[in-house]
Structure formats: C-alpha cells, structure tokens
Design goal:
- It is a single chain.
- It contains six helices and seven strands, in the order H-H-E-H-E-E-H-E-E-H-H-E-E.
- It has helices spanning 2-42, 47-80, 91-105, 131-147, 178-181, 203-213; strands spanning 87-90, 110-115, 126-129, 153-160, 164-171, 217-223, 227-235.
- The strands form two sheets. Strands 2-4-5-7-6 form a five-stranded mixed sheet. A two-stranded antiparallel sheet has the order 1-3.
- Strand 6 (217-223) and strand 7 form a beta hairpin.
- The model has no long low-confidence stretch (mean pLDDT 91).
- The protein binds adenosine-5'-diphosphate (ADP).
- The site of adenosine-5'-diphosphate (ADP) has 22 residues, from helix 4 and helix 6.
Length: 237
C-alpha cells in the first residue's frame, strides 16, 4: 500500500514539474515574439527592416510550432502508452525505415548501418513491440547523433545473441559529460554543451518511456568532445 502511495505521489510530482517546465518553455519564445512585435511597432520601418522583423517572427514561430508538436507527441505517447497494440516486428526493418524517414526530412545527414554478427536465425531480430513507437526511438537517436556531430553521421550497429537484440547508435560528436549523463533521460533536460543546437530536451525522455514499455534497456556511454553511443537492448522472440 505504501509503495502504491509513493508511486502515485511520484507520478503527481512528475506531472506538476512537467506542466511547469512546459509552461516555461512556451513562455520564452512567446515573450521573444512579443518584444519583436513591440520593437517593430516603435517607429516607422523601411521595407527591408519590415522584412527582417517578419523573418525573425517566422523563425520564432517555427520554433514554437516545433515545441508544441513535441509536447503534443509526448502527451499523446504518455496518454496512450498502456494501450498501444504490440505485435511481432523486425527491429532491423524498423532501423531502415527510421533511416529513410530521417534522411528524407534531413538529406544532409548520414546514417551508416552495419550488422555486428550475422543473426543465427530470423527470430534474433524479431521483438514483440509497437512499430511506430520503436521507430520514434530510433528516429530520435539517429537525429541526435547527426545533430550533435560535425560530420552529421550516425553509425548504427545491430547485434544479437541468444536472448537480446541490440541497436547501438554511435557518433563522433560533442559528447556528454558524466554529470549530464545522469539527467539526459529526464524531460526538458539539456546539457550545457547542447545549448547552441536546436532542441527541447524531450526526445530522450520519450525514448526512455517507450523502451521501458517494451521492458528493454537504454543506456549511454560518452566522452566529451569525442562522441557518444546510445544502446537499446530488447529481448527477441
Ligand atoms: P534535445 O536533443 O532536443 O535537446 P533530447 O531529449 O533528445 O533533447 O536529448 C537531451 C540532451 O541529451 C540533449 O540536449 C543533449 O544535451 C544530450 N544529448 C542527447 N544525444 C546526444 C548526442 N548524441 N551527443 C551529445 N549530446 C546528446
């Protein structure tokens, strides 16, 4: 009984902190939009100045849309996560689907996929899970690997043993300090060295929830200025 109470309290606390973080994240770009508009109204502007103000407004609005979409996706995932349909899926197929989807949105990225070993049989890359959610995990990991590395390249290795299928996503990017590694799976957390890159600190918290739902594991090893490897491990059928 005490355990249930503690878990409930933790859930409420998480929700409270989520709402306050989300409000804060939304307020900042809205405040920027407002001051931009006020500045534009302060005196008559030339046409090029108008264009500049509008371009800035567009940039802030795009960021706001992208943040709202991420929040919506997170809320929907958490809401429906207990009721998503599970079936047998091939994780390596999902790796290739995620690659195609990311590259069509961001053609300058590179994603190299390799098998560490030849699976003993077909079952070794088949897991019980939800294709859309697992694809979302891989999309986030590939996107991060490319975004946070100067060569915009994610190196993906698929490996299997008698029990597990593992997907390791490696990059030679900015890396994550040991201190930051303790927090990156929390919603809205962003490490200091990531601040010059687009993002809201939501993707990895979604990944962690999805992998937890699949009773798998997600882990990271990383060294600052040298690179990171995120590994997900799922029991195969
Ligand atoms: P976002 O990338 O939008 O900030 P995520 O939840 O995907 O949000 O990641 C949380 C944080 O973890 C990032 O802000 C960054 O500090 C760190 N991080 C994640 N992936 C990488 C990576 N491949 N290389 C370096 N830092 C990373």
């Amino acid at each position: 009984f005490n355990d249930v109470l503690t878990r409930l309290e933790q859930a409420f606390e998480q929700q409270r902190s989520f709402v306050s973080h989300a409000s804060h994240e939304l307020r900042t770009p809205l405040a920027a939009l407002k001051s931009e508009i006020q500045l534009g109204l302060r005196r008559p502007l030339t046409v090029p100045e108008h264009e500049e103000v509008l371009a800035n407004l567009l940039q802030d609005t795009d960021r706001l849309i992208s943040l709202t979409n991420s929040l919506l996706f997170l809320a929907r995932t958490l809401e429906s996560i207990q009721s998503v349909p599970f079936q047998i899926v091939r994780i390596d197929d999902i790796v290739f689907l995620a690659k195609d989807e990311l590259l069509s949105a961001k053609p300058t990225y590179r994603i190299e996929i390799d098998y560490e070993n030849i699976p003993n049989d077909e079952n070794e890359t088949q897991v019980t899970g939800n294709e859309d959610l697992l694809k979302q995990v891989l999309l986030n990991l590939f996107d991060n690997a490319c975004k946070y590395s100067p060569d915009h390249t994610a190196r993906v290795r698929i490996s299997t043993d008698h029990q597990f299928c593992r997907i390791a996503v490696h990059d030679q990017g900015i890396g994550i300090s040991e201190e930051a590694q303790q927090h990156i799976f929390e919603s809205f957390y962003r490490a200091n060295n990531a601040m010059n890159y687009d993002g809201f600190g939501i993707g990895l918290s979604i990944c962690a929830k999805i992998i937890e739902l699949h009773q798998g594991e997600i882990s990271v090893t990383s060294e600052l200025q040298s690179g990171s490897t995120f590994t997900i491990s799922l029991a195969h059928i």
